[in-house]
Design a protein that fits this description.
Structural class: alpha/beta
Number of domains: 2
CATH architecture of the largest domain: 3-Layer(aba) Sandwich
Largest sheet: 7 strands, mixed
Number of helices: 11
Mean pLDDT: 97
Number of strands: 14
Shape: globular
Helix content: 25-40%
Bound molecules: pyridoxal-5'-phosphate
Distance between the termini: 42 Å
CATH superfamily of the largest domain: Type I PLP-dependent aspartate aminotransferase-like (Major domain)
Strand order of the largest sheet: 4-10-9-8-7-5-6
CATH class of the largest domain: Alpha Beta
Order of helices and strands: EEEHHHEHEHEHEHEEEHHEEHEEH
């Protein structure tokens, strides 16, 4: 059997990871400025994380959600405390799309309505409801298009109110900072308007923090820059540092009942051990401080490069916008300078999502390479 060929692949075969460095099967090291789509939060194969997962696997790796699992309780308590959401509840699942799927389902159950408002350039995943609120018709199959969704521009509160006032909307879903779309974000005024309008029209406000959460923005959640509280927060990616795990943090105003949500694998022992270890490392190594310090250093260096037209994002979720498409630049970074970076729907944007353990020395290596490439190649807009 061959693989279903849906991914265009770089000619690199990583077989080992250590903090910021990924090593391929030929022994070549690469600096990871992309963290495998923003997944690697505490660095590749962090020794504390590896030990925690190993120890858990030796004890018990899995049992279903029909029995007590104190690790889930421990994870919920730790996550609540570190994120500032101790009064919320946690439902665990296995991926980002699944987190949003459950968030949207819960909003619909709670309000008994079915329409969703999402925003231009959004990406919320590839499952049924999650893909229907994603602004990319190419990945929406006919079977997904039955969910009623209105896509609106970011930062236009008037249009949001017009849509909500019709009375059929169950949820507004917004990324803390847009990832795949290209690092655009709502203003503080817009996030605050969304909060007010959702309260006014009995609509659930969902913050998708799957990419922007877990400290990546420099706060635990990116929406915390705007001093609002959503009703549901979806998380995944950095939560497990590569172990597949996701979840939703749910406001006390949404009530649980047996059977309302469920999953076989979600919240299994191994996923909990990985997720607890990630939180412990973020706390013990003060990684949020590092995110803010290295981010400021990175932005300062980026400002000195005339070809960089715009610097977008926050913390270590950054985008450098050029006036040319970055595909060739990314190829040169990976093949000539051995640095992984990311792209976005905005083809002129270079996406930067390194592990939160990154140092200023790594940033220097990146900018040395970038400057050399920009000097040697005439990129055309
Ligand atoms: C903001 C956001 N939401 C949801 C998802 C979907 O997550 P997953 O690929 O784990 O299903 C992604 C993935 O890139 C994302 O960036």
């Amino acid at each position: 059997m061959k693989l279903f060929d849906v991914y265009p692949l770089y000619e690199v075969t990583p077989i080992k990871g250590n903090d910021m460095v990924v090593t391929d099967n030929k022994g070549q090291d690469y600096l990871d400025f992309y963290g495998g789509h923003g997944v690697i939060s505490i660095g590749h194969s962090h020794p504390y994380y590896v030990k925690s997962v190993e120890k858990q696997l030796e004890a018990i790796g899995f049992y279903s959600n029909a029995v007590q699992n104190p690790l889930q309780v421990q994870l919920a308590e730790k996550l609540g405390k570190m994120s500032g959401y101790s009064d919320f509840s946690l439902f665990l699942c296995n991926s980002g799309a699944e987190a949003n799927e459950n968030a949207l389902k819960l909003a619909s159950f709670h309000t008994n309505k079915n329409k969703v408002i999402a925003f231009e350039n959004s990406f919320h995943g590839r499952t049924s409801a999650a893909v229907s609120v994603t602004d990319n018709p190419k990945i929406i199959a006919p079977i997904n298009s039955c969910n009623p969704v209105t896509i609106l521009p970011l930062n236009n509160s008037e249009l949001v109110e017009k849509a909500l006032s019709k009375g059929d909307v169950c949820a507004v879903i917004i990324e803390g900072i847009q990832g795949v779309g290209g690092l655009d974000e709502g203003t503080t005024a817009f996030f605050q308007d969304l909060r007010t309008l959702c309260n006014k029209y009995n609509v659930i406000l969902i913050a998708d923090e799957i990419q922007s959460g877990y400290g990546r923005s420099g706060k635990f959640f990116a929406h915390q820059y705007h001093t609002i509280q959503p009703d549901i927060i979806s998380v995944a990616k950095g939560m497990g540092n590569g172990f597949p795990v996701g979840g939703i943090l749910i406001s006390p105003k949404l009530k649980a009942s047996y059977g309302l949500l469920g999953t076989t694998f979600g919240g299994n022992h191994l996923a909990c051990a990985a997720s607890i270890a990630v939180l412990e490392v973020i706390e013990n190594e003060k990684l949020l401080d590092n995110v803010n310090e290295v981010s400021a250093y990175f932005i300062e260096k980026a400002k000195q490069i005339p070809q960089v037209k715009k610097i977008k994002g926050k913390g270590l979720m950054l985008g450098l916008e050029f006036d040319f498409e970055v595909a060739e630049l990314r190829k040169q970074l990976i093949y000539n300078y051995h640095i992984f970076t990311g792209g976005a729907s905005n083809k002129n944007l270079l996406r930067i999502l390194p592990p939160m353990t990154i140092s200023k020395e790594h940033v220097d290596v990146f900018f040395d390479a970038l400057i050399k490439i920009l000097k040697s190649t005439n990129f055309k807009s």
